[in-house]
Specification:
Elements lengths: L3 H7 L4 H22 L3 E8 L7 H25 L1 E6 L7 H14 L5 E9 L1 H17 L10 H5 L12 E4 L18 E4 L9 H12 L9 H8 L8
Parallel strand pairs: 1-3, 2-3, 4-5
Helix pairs in contact: 1-2, 2-3, 3-4
The protein binds 3-methylbut-3-enyl trihydrogen diphosphate and magnesium ion.
């Protein structure tokens, strides 16, 4: 979700006004994703690198996150969503953390879909944490070093029990992935859209999904193999 600051600046507003409008789009997109039957939606809300922003902006972002969690809990329940996070939430303000833990616990049994908030998330940091966890498990005899493969290793990532992303959308015209799900996105389709996040609405989500549906995902195979059936189940919506 990129471009909040530029969206605000273009309108002569402070950056935080862009973040506020961005939260409104989060609500819209969470609802639209539910209506489209998206099983898992991950929102990159705050990266490990975002701590480097001016303190006032970080504080405002945390306040917005707190308010979002307070008001969104009802919606999450209504939509039957399970809330999850990826990232090191221990470093977030106490109020945010306890709200997260409460909503995650309350929604754990919901099965309609999963809403994942990437908070204090960075892909490289995640890999280091997973390597540490795996090494510790080897030392304690819970894992076998010789048996290390992607399947075993990836269980130690924050996304351990989540599916790999099929489609990754970045708004605001930037053509980079900024430390987001670098390994999990190995076979993801990417969609870079010009609009800033505060301008990204349900129709844009649908358009991105339609573009995704028109692509052929080959996973290293040939187009002929895919036409023979292997790739027919990769459409997100019909
Ligand atoms: C994304 O918008 C929001 C967060 C990182 C929380 P930006 O704040 O990065 O907006 P630009 O890139 O400055 O326009
Ligand atoms: Mg940005």
């Amino acid at each position: 979700m990129d471009g909040n600051g530029r969206w605000a600046r273009l309108r002569g507003l402070p950056r935080i006004a862009g973040h506020r409008e961005g939260v409104n789009r989060v609500r819209d997109i969470v609802r639209a994703a539910g209506e489209l039957g998206i099983k898992c939606l991950t929102l990159y809300a705050f990266s490990c690198e975002n701590w480097k922003r001016p303190k006032e902006e970080v504080d405002e972002l945390m306040k917005l996150l707190e308010r979002f969690l307070r008001t969104q809990a009802k919606e999450i329940r209504k939509q039957g969503l399970r809330l999850r996070t990826i990232g090191d939430i221990a470093a977030l303000p106490e109020k945010v953390r306890s709200l997260l833990e409460k909503t995650i616990a309350e929604s754990a049994g919901n099965e309609k879909g999963t809403l994942v908030l990437a908070l204090n998330y960075g892909s490289r940091q995640e890999v280091i944490a997973a390597v540490r966890a795996y090494a510790l498990a080897v030392r304690e005899g819970r894992e076998d070093l010789d048996a290390l493969d992607w399947d075993r290793f990836s269980r130690h990532l924050y996304t351990g029990d989540l599916p790999d992303p099929d489609l990754i959308i970045r708004t605001s015209g930037e053509l980079r992935v900024s430390n987001f799900l670098l390994l999990q996105g190995a076979y993801a389709e990417y969609c870079f859209v010009q609009k800033s996040w505060p301008d990204f609405g349900p129709a844009d989500l649908r358009e991105a999904i339609e573009a995704y549906n028109a692509r052929e995902r080959r996973f290293g195979m040939t187009g002929e193999q895919i036409c023979n059936g292997t790739g027919q189940n990769t459409r997100l919506i019909s």
